[in-house]
């Protein structure tokens, strides 16, 4: 347990009359928020109920920012002018309830940082595809020569960049947890990719509560702003009908013609945001393949057209983009078998997208910490594409129960090495071994990155 400089910080704000900003959580967003708050002259205190990593501890010490680790000292928190909390801390946490009861504002790092930048914000949310779409959008804008930063749920902290950089645009990947603590924030361009059941434990197990949280992406928008959404996603359409956004709407669809917006006609994407200036591109030229990635590419393409980027630049960038690590990442081809790392697929919907994009027979590695998953949506794809399931987790009973009638072979494994070896033996030339767990990773691994890295290392040992 460690504490740094607490007493001096606490008395300092009383003596100087400085506003006191308390930050809960000392990860990337928390330490970034601390950096910005200090730069703006606040008395800053950071409190983390868990262990602060050496990297972030060193940053706080270097900046002489007071902090505590492995505890929340109430008298040092409940005297805050405002609290910035990590998205991972639920509203039911005792310290949050006490702050709310005292009327102390609790906001997200995104909300806080936006006050100190005039940059245009392109905010991307959705249950699936956020990271890919955010990275693709950033890639296109950067290639077009825009002065653009990438932040939110991905990359470096937004607040830290606002403190040290001078970007004119930000692409922000925004989760529902972040949106819950955003109030005055406004997205210049808001993108809603889809709404599927995820994190329902934070929303009283009600999809409508989660959907309402996602719709906060359009709060405070005016008729001058832009809202981009998927016209094929029923839950999104339901949520939109309740809110009735006022921003300029640009829907996208692969089932019907939409203008203005984006649509698929046979194998060609059409993107039109204003008359007589259409972008067309063959889906075979997209760097990202699979139906779900047509949606992601359409969303990024609409953003690019709204910003009046040249068609040639957009096409080139959409054709040469490299996807993120642990998301349908090709690891190796061994004895004619493709090994694919999709460790970032921590919910059933992500695994559905991964299976949907497969063009060969699959040996599927799945399992981990089940978040109350409903595996029914996978059954048709598993029946048609999966020849064997290799479970990777401590408790695989629900996977066995869900798929025992759909595949002939279901095997339990308890390490990435074992899973890779057994999958290799079950697959034959022309097949794919796909790690797409549909579950969290915390039973056997530190996080999904650790799971993906161990899988890749195991594949390279085959």
TrEMBL record:
UniProt keyword Cell division, yes or no: yes
Species of the source: Pedobacter kyonggii
Function comment: Cell wall formation. Catalyzes the addition of glutamate to the nucleotide precursor UDP-N-acetylmuramoyl-L-alanine (UMA).
EC category name: ligase
Mur ligase central domain mapped to chain residues: 124-302
Mur ligase C-terminal domain span: 326-439
Keywords: ATP-binding, Cell cycle, Cell division, Cell shape, Cell wall biogenesis/degradation, Cytoplasm, Ligase, Nucleotide-binding, Peptidoglycan synthesis
Protein name: UDP-N-acetylmuramoylalanine--D-glutamate ligase
GO terms for cellular component: cytoplasm
Similarity section: Belongs to the MurCDEF family.
Annotated InterPro entries: Mur-like_cat_sf, Mur_ligase_C, Mur_ligase_C_dom_sf, Mur_ligase_cen, MurD
Superkingdom, taxonomy of origin: Bacteria
Pathway participation: Cell wall biogenesis; peptidoglycan biosynthesis
Reaction(s) catalysed (UniProt annotation): UDP-N-acetyl-alpha-D-muramoyl-L-alanine + D-glutamate + ATP = UDP-N-acetyl-alpha-D-muramoyl-L-alanyl-D-glutamate + ADP + phosphate + H(+)
EC number from the UniProt entry: 6.3.2.9
A Pfam family matched in the record: Mur_ligase_C
GO BP terms in the entry: cell division; cell wall organization; peptidoglycan biosynthetic process; regulation of cell shape
Single annotated GO MF: ATP binding
Localization, UniProt: Cytoplasm
Binding-site list for ATP: 126-132
């Amino acid at each position: 347990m460690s504490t740094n400089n607490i007493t001096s910080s606490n008395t300092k704000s009383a003596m100087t009359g400085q506003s006191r900003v308390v930050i809960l959580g000392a990860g990337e967003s928390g330490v970034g928020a601390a950096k910005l708050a200090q730069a703006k002259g606040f008395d800053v205190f950071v409190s983390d109920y868990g262990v602060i990593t050496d990297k972030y501890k060193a940053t706080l010490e270097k900046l002489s920012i007071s902090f505590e680790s492995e505890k929340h000292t109430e008298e040092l928190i409940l005297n805050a002018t405002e609290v910035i909390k990590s998205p991972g801390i639920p509203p039911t946490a005792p310290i949050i309830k006490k702050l709310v009861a005292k009327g102390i504002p609790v906001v997200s790092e995104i909300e806080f940082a936006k006050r100190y930048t005039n940059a245009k914000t392109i905010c991307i949310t959705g249950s699936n595809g956020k990271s890919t779409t955010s990275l693709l959008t950033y890639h296109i804008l950067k290639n077009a020569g825009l002065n653009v930063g990438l932040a939110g749920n991905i990359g470096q902290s937004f607040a830290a960049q606002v403190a040290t950089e001078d970007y004119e645009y930000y692409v922000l990947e925004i989760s529902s947890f972040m949106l819950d603590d955003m109030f005055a924030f406004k997205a210049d361009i808001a993108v809603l990719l889809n709404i599927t059941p995820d994190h329902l434990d934070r929303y009283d197990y009600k999809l409508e509560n989660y959907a309402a949280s996602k719709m906060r992406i359009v709060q405070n928008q005016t008729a001058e702003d832009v809202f981009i959404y998927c016209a094929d996603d029923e839950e999104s359409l339901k949520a939109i009908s309740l809110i009735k956004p006022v921003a300029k709407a640009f829907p996208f669809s692969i089932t019907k013609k939409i203008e203005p917006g984006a649509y698929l006609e046979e194998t060609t994407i059409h993107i039109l945001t204003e008359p007589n200036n259409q972008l067309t591109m063959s889906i075979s030229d997209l760097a990202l393949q699979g139906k779900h990635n047509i949606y992601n590419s359409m969303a990024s393409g609409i953003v690019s057209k709204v910003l009046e980027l040249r068609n040639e630049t957009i096409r080139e960038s959409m054709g040469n983009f490299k996807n993120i690590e642990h998301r349908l990442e090709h690891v190796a081809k061994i004895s004619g078998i493709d090994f694919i790392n999709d460790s970032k697929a921590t919910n059933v919907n992500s695994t559905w997208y991964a299976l949907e994009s497969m063009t060969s027979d699959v040996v599927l590695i799945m399992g981990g910490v089940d978040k109350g998953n409903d595996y029914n949506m996978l059954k048709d794809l598993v029946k048609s594409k999966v020849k064997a399931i290799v479970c990777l987790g401590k408790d695989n009973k629900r996977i066995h129960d869900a798929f025992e009638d759909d595949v002939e072979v279901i095997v339990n494994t308890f390490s990435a090495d074992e899973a890779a070896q057994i999958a290799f033996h079950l697959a034959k030339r022309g097949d794919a071994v796909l790690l797409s767990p549909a579950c969290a990773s915390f039973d056997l691994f530190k996080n999904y990155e650790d799971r993906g890295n161990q899988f890749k290392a195991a594949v390279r040992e085959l």
